[in-house]
Amino acid sequence: MSNTLQKLQDLEPSAEEFRAAVLGGLGAPAKTLPCKFFYDAEGSRLFDKICELPEYYPTRTECHILESYAGEIAKHIGRRARLVEFGSGAGIKIRLLLSALERPAAYVPVDISRLHLLAAASSLARDFPRLSIAPICADYTTPFALPPADGARTTVGFFPGSTIGNFTTDEAKTFLTTARALLGAGSAMIVGVDLRKDASILVPAYDDAAGVTQAFNLNLLRRINRELGGTFKLDQFVHTARWNDAAGRMEMHLVSRCAQTVEIGGESFTFADGEAIHTENSHKYTIAQFQDLARSAGYAPKAVWTDEASLFSVHLLTDAG
Ligand code: AVJ
Predict the structure, then answer these.
(1) Which residue, among 107, 102, 63, 104, has the nearest Cα to 85 in the 3D structure?
(2) DSSP assignment of 192-218
(3) Strand pairing report for 132-133 and 106-111
(4) Which residues are near ligand 1 (CB < 6 Å)?
(5) How far away, in angstroms, is 282 Cα from ligand 1 center?
(6) 93 alpha carbon to ligand 1 midpoint, in Å?
(7) Atom 12 of ligand 1 has which residue's CA nearest to it?
(8) Could you tell me which residues are beta bridge partners of residue 250?
(9) pLDDT per position in the chain (321 positions), as tens?
(10) What atom of ligand 1 comes closest to residue 217's alpha carbon?
(11) Would you call 140 exposed, middle or buried from its count of C-beta atoms within 10 A (0-12, 13-18, 19+)?
């Protein structure tokens, strides 16, 4: 059996980028930290645990949609496709697609977490021995190049998990526009998008009873302590999840329990009692809202699949040329 796992293309963000983002975010009048830094080894492990929680419906619902409609999706895509996955993570969803596709040519997983990426890529190489796998460790919001398409008939982007919801609508438009250019003329894109729904379902999904999401949010502070020499006391911050109706998004914050000062590599940051660090947005869309967004980025909405309860949606978009 040929070895089809290609050498890693390594564009992992540097410690310097992390430092600049943290100092910039905490130095701003309204404190923020970018959610892309959640995913160190521990954060990736905690995220995988979130995906199994009873309250966190997106993962299992999206997998159910992909399972139910994989045949239909495969028909739209056709044979010998090359799949490029943005934020590939554990690689469960891509298996559902790859198993349904007719002779997929290549798979390019792009992920910010290097160890997670390599583990997922080598496990996939064992299960799909004839697939060429070319992993790229990168923050997919920064420019990177695709390897040569050798032999692929078409290129299809895959952006599951409603990760697109972490962007503002403007950022999402920019991401889709850039992805369309990267994937090339005639390409397609499959995007998983969490649907707008009642806050009584959304809030527990981001504030679970077992406290896994709380640990995931707080792990960002632990990472700052470890990698940047921070002095955060984790028990002095409270995880909160709130629905922002005007912006149509779930927000996660870390709220200071008291007035306190935190040092990070020689700089100090003061927190008032109750002051929050905004760590994540998860925008929720209606199907029509997301299709409008896709059109604004040069995509034609081709098909959309949902579950019976209309919790989640999977969109097939094609390059409108
Ligand atoms: C994988 C980024 C889409 O926003 O729902 C899970 C991350 N944050 N619980 C999301 C997350 C809190 C997740 N995304």
Answers:
(1) 107
(2) EEEBP--HHHHHHHTS-TT-HHHHHHH
(3) parallel
(4) 50, 58, 161-163, 165-166, 206, 213, 280, 282
(5) 7
(6) 15
(7) 206
(8) 243, 282
(9) 455 888 898 888 888 999 999 999 999 999 999 999 999 989 989 999 999 999 999 999 999 999 999 999 999 999 999 999 999 877 889 999 999 999 999 999 999 888 889 999 999 999 999 999 999 999 988 889 999 887 899 999 999 999 999 999 999 999 999 999 999 999 999 999 999 999 999 999 999 999 999 999 999 999 999 999 999 999 999 999 999 999 999 999 999 999 999 999 899 999 999 999 999 999 999 999 999 999 999 999 999 999 999 999 999 999 998
(10) 12
(11) buried
Q: Which of 230, 244, 229, 311 is nearest to 280 (CA)?
A: 244
CA of 250 from ligand 1 middle (Å) equals 10
Stated pTM of the model: 0.95
